Amino acid sequence: MKELWNERYKNQEFVYGKDPNLFFKEWLKKFKPGSILMPADGEGRNGVFAARMGWKVTSFDLSVEGRTKAFQLAKEKGVTLDYRVGDFDQLQFERESFDVVGLVFAHFSAEKKSIFHKKLNDYLKPGGIIIFEAFSKKHLNYYKLNPKVGGRMGKDMLFSEAEIMTDFENYEKIRLQEEEIQLNEGKNHIGRGSVIRFVGRKVANQN
Ligand SMILES: C[S@@+](CC[C@H](N)C(=O)[O-])C[C@H]1O[C@@H](n2cnc3c(N)ncnc32)[C@H](O)[C@@H]1O
Question: pLDDT for 102-124, tens place per residue?
């Protein structure tokens, strides 16, 4: 997995572009800047955007090449990021220390994805916000029609509203929707796709 992402990121081009994801951008702007965790931040387009908006950004990703590109983008935009390289399994952050967690196309295997969400829940302060966009299970039909939209993966790595309801049961659902959208992100996300969009506020700790 790590090798695959390093291979994708090692070229000069930013595979999802340098601009932030539109849903993440729209929603982040609604909150007063504080601390934000950006899991699976890749080449840093979203983390760098958050830093430009005045957020104190902590990013992480498997890919060291991703970090190199993220630092390049941060320098270009005149901001800094704390960016750790590693598998989310091994990384540790302080409990209840982030105001926001931004999850953008953070897809993991079926057996890992709920564990990952629960771990992120621990890092978020009570009252903290999750901003989430990722491909839905319906997306496979879109990918078959147009592989340029990206998101080629097993159905169990894709999301449903029901899974989000379960993983984030202790959240007020500010918004939760499966949507068909037009993607135009770099060269790897081009065309119509199906995503789950979720914004939630943590109201309590999980049992
Ligand atoms: C589809 S890319 C999205 C990158 C970024 N969020 C964006 O929207 O531009 C998925 C990212 O997840 C990272 N990733 C996959 N498995 C991971 C893991 N177990 N721990 C940390 N990062 C992981 C990959 O390295 C890759 O950068």
Answer: 999 999 988 899 999 999 999 99
Using CA positions, which residue lies closest to atom 20 of ligand 1? 87
Pocket test for ligand 1, best of 16, 62, 85, 108 (most atoms within 8 A of CB): 62
Q: For the chain, which domains are there?
A: 2-201 (3.40.50.150)
Phi/psi for 121 (5° steps) reads -55, -40
Q: Kindly indicate the confidence band of residue 42, based on its pLDDT and cuts at 50, 70 and 90.
A: very high
Dihedral (Cα; 32, 80, 19, 107), 10-degree rounding: -80
Using the atom order of ligand 1, give the atom closest to the CA of residue 43: 9
Ligand 1 center from residue 188 Cα (angstroms) = 14
Measure the CA–CA gap between 146 and 94, rounded to whole angstroms.
Answer: 41
Question: What pLDDT, on the 0 to 100 scale, is given for residue 48?
Answer: 98
Is 45 close to ligand 1, i.e. is its CB under 6 Å away? yes
